[in-house]
Amino acid sequence: MTELYDEVGGPDGVRTAVAVFYGRVTADDELGAWFEGIDLERLKAHQRAFLAAAFGGPQLFSGRSLSEAHGGLEITDAAFDRLVQTLCTSLADLGVRQEAVTRVAERLEGARAEVVTA
């Protein structure tokens, strides 16, 4: 595995971070509406696999491409920024070093073009 995947705590760290992250975004006044009516357990499983791979861990993600999954959602740059910030805050609150949190944000920035559609 890579240093970043290990830094966020491997599979247990990814699982915890995803749980904290979705707890926050579903309660967020600006982001929560995107998650209404969604099977959150299924989404969390996809997110764990996606983030594990994005962090250099096991390549277990087999879902739709990011552009297919997010194409009709009209996600704005501001919403994307808020999602990334929420994940980074979640990681920091879980004790992940700031350097690693910054690297996570940089990796997620690479997905912006596939996720932002509005």
Automatic annotation (TrEMBL):
The keyword Transport applies. One of its GO terms (molecular function) is heme binding. The lineage of its organism: Bacteria, Bacillati, Actinomycetota, Actinomycetes, Micrococcales. It comes from Agromyces flavus. This is Hemoglobin. SUPFAM superfamilies: Globin-like (SSF46458). Pfam families: Bac_globin. Gene3D superfamilies: Globins. Heme binds at residues 46, 70. Keywords: Heme, Iron, Metal-binding, Transport. CDD domains: TrHb1_N. InterPro entries: Globin-like_sf, Globin/Proto, Hemoglobin_trunc.
